[in-house]
Amino acid sequence: MGKAQSRYKGTGMSEEISDLVTMATMLVETTPIALARGAPSLDIIDVDGLKAAAQAALTIDPERTLGYGSAAGYEPLREWIATCHGVKPEQVIVTNGSMQADAFLFAALVGRGDTVVVESPSYDRTLKALSDQGAHLRALPLEPDGLDTQALAAVLESGVTPALAHIIPNFQNPAGYTLSQAKRTQLLDQARTYGFTIFEDDPYIELRFSGERLPTLLSQSQNDEVVYASSFSKTVAPGVRVGYLVGSTDIIEQITQLATAAYISPNMVAQSMVYQFIESGAYDRSIDKVNAALSARVDVLASSLQEKIPEIAFTKPLGGYFMWVTFPDDVDTDKLATKCSDLGLAVVQGSNFMLDKARNSLRLAFSAVGEDHIVEGVERLGRALNDL
Amino acid sequence: MGKAQSRYKGTGMSEEISDLVTMATMLVETTPIALARGAPSLDIIDVDGLKAAAQAALTIDPERTLGYGSAAGYEPLREWIATCHGVKPEQVIVTNGSMQADAFLFAALVGRGDTVVVESPSYDRTLKALSDQGAHLRALPLEPDGLDTQALAAVLESGVTPALAHIIPNFQNPAGYTLSQAKRTQLLDQARTYGFTIFEDDPYIELRFSGERLPTLLSQSQNDEVVYASSFSKTVAPGVRVGYLVGSTDIIEQITQLATAAYISPNMVAQSMVYQFIESGAYDRSIDKVNAALSARVDVLASSLQEKIPEIAFTKPLGGYFMWVTFPDDVDTDKLATKCSDLGLAVVQGSNFMLDKARNSLRLAFSAVGEDHIVEGVERLGRALNDL
What is the least distance, in Å, from the CA of B1 to any CA of chain A? Predict the structure, then answer.
């Protein structure tokens, strides 16, 4: 037996193999792991389906795909969205991502000094957009079954009438919680009684791994008390930047005028691609694939956390991208996030999402990483906690 | 000889053929002809090149094409633009069309009540965007060699310092005029001396049919006195909605923050497609094709106008999409545009582009129609004028 072969014999590793294992371990340990950003990993995006969609868009409808078109968006996609929600196409505007839709909505409905009810915690970009618009934010607690509607009742009874209540009803960002049907009914009653608009911000609705989908607030509304937003960032890809709003014909007309002034028309190439992606059936397959992957990831995340960091508390989400984890009161997650960063783990401290800066929670995103990275990420989180 | 054959003999047409000719003539006469909108006809868009670009984008760089990326835009396109203009990538932001770039620039630089110098006539959407921003517009005459810089000197000497001067230097919309080098030098001197920013709005620069390109104001500036905007709407396709700004690192950083808040990131799919379209060589071929077509169209437009409506005055543009035509003083082009519309011809009355509502000019766009439609369009314009 030659020297080369002998290396692979017996239980002991040769020096070279041992070095390789050490190097591989170091490599794993220093690979940055992102449990921070709410973005999908490339493996759950249907790149081939999008290639086919691009060809279809440019072959079947080159004129509308490449022309200016209307600020309301690519008409066939607008009609498809209208059909999904059981409304008229005139009640839909398709925008360059749903943040842009939010910005138009806030410009149309929220004046400087107006009160806007928001969930606490809530999506940091939306809180910033509302603040930039001059809104007075009234943050009410978010519970595992959604906004604290009793707290809202108290605010309304005190004589404060908000211009808007911003609600992320499904698999909320950052908490992962879902608004119960009982609270949906209460919230709609409150909006009708007190005359405010509910902004139903619903980008995660298609990402349910278990349980039954609850009807949208929009579908349960009676008098235009809801404006609804969603997005194809999570079901097709973020880079297509296609989102939309559904509302009354009046508000959509008003927002279409704002959109015309801002950019003449939105991205027709991307909207036409999304439409062909849907038409081909790739959209439904993509949602199934995304949900299977996210479901497996959240299982690994939950079991790893329970095993490695038993003092952590969380409600395992039934869908979406995010899990909200809470540490004992004395843990400062601003400091913890910095420790994590030193260990090559990106997380987002809870204070980013809270107006009152509570300090013992983190948002963990399981959308951007595979299961092995989740296990390693939880290891690092545990180490960071011990180092604190 | 049978009856069928006899129909094709001799000089007289049979009744059936005569009917067909009448029908065809009616069809031509009632086909809507648009000399109104500044948009390219589909035949001068390289659809196949864009199909190949979409495949390349999704094959070569799926991760950045489909991800969120940065609000500054798709990095390789940003770098390509920076190289074109001899600046650093940090001086470029790629946006969802150049109107969106304008809106960010105005939000950053123009406060309510600030004076902004504009050309008269000028692009109606820009005038509206500036007015919406609360700017006080100071319209100065546009001459065949560009802005009346003597008039600007008088304004500056009177003690008015504008925040911005908006200039469309090449093949201006709506006039088709180009700013001379002598006036470029004067304008830069004025900006330096009086401390205002020149907004060089240059979407038509690549569409030159004859003569030599003049250096951009940006390339001749010394101390960040110019912010430059352009677009791929005219050289690739409007539906890609890709425009950009070039300026100082500071202003681009400030605008990137506005863009982040507005839409997180612009359309990466479209920007990656545009980049691959450029890389493949299709971009240069597309510009050649567009210019050959536009040059032929403007020749037909000019000769048809000279032949059919000799009382009309115009300066034949050396590039771009638009020709500005002026009628005798007593012709009201608001009324003329309505007459044209009755005859199935869309034109835009000059008053849309003027703050002082001069009434005897029209903008004719030769971008969206073939040569035969231009001939027929001029026929209708002549008829409308006679009917007035």
Answer: 48
